[in-house]
Amino acid sequence: AAPAPMARPKRLAAELPADQKLRDALREWRRMLAKELKLPAYIILHDATVDALCRRAPKTIADLCEVPGIGVKKAERYGEQILGVIKGRAASG
After folding, report:
1. Among 16, 26, 41, which Cα is nearest to 79's?
2. Rg of the chain's alpha carbons, rounded to an integer?
3. Cβ 65 vs Cβ 72: under 8 Å
4. Which of 45, 51, 54 is nearest to 78 (CA)?
5. Which residues of the chain have a pLDDT value below 70?
6. Residue 4 has what pLDDT?
7. Across the chain, what does the average pLDDT equal?
8. Percent helix, strand, coil in the chain (nearest 5)?
9. Between the N and C ends of the chain, which has fewer C-beta atoms within 10 Å?
10. In the 3-class helix/strand/coil scheme, how is 71-88 assigned residue by residue?
């Protein structure tokens, strides 16, 4: 018999973003950009990457490149926009 499919592990509290409003803002930005570019949202950023951005709150492109799921191409393509969302959220606190 084939092995049973593995269940997805439940997310640990440490994996969840501390700032739900920032997460919502990043997901909304991603949704709007995906619609504009006619791409699936996950191509722009996976949910896990959005959550990592919320936990790390990068302030520079170099910081952004240290976030899992963001490489040089994504940093070049979307970095300033992502940092703008994060900065805007921090300013509205």
Report:
1. 26
2. 15
3. yes
4. 45
5. 1-18, 90, 93
6. 60
7. 87
8. 65, 0, 35
9. N
10. CHHHHHHHHHHHHHHHHH
Alpha carbon distance 91, 93 (integer Å):
5
Length of the chain: 93
Phi-psi region of 57 (alpha: psi -120 to 50; beta: other; left: phi over 0): left
Tracing tokens 């799921």 back to the chain, one arrives at 69
pTM (2 d.p.): 0.78
| One-letter amino acid of 9 | P
Show the tokens assigned to 69.
């799921």
Structural tokens at position 28: 């909304």
Q: What is the pLDDT of residue 46?
A: 96
Instruction: Quote the DSSP letter at residue 69.
Output: T
Amino acid in position 33: L
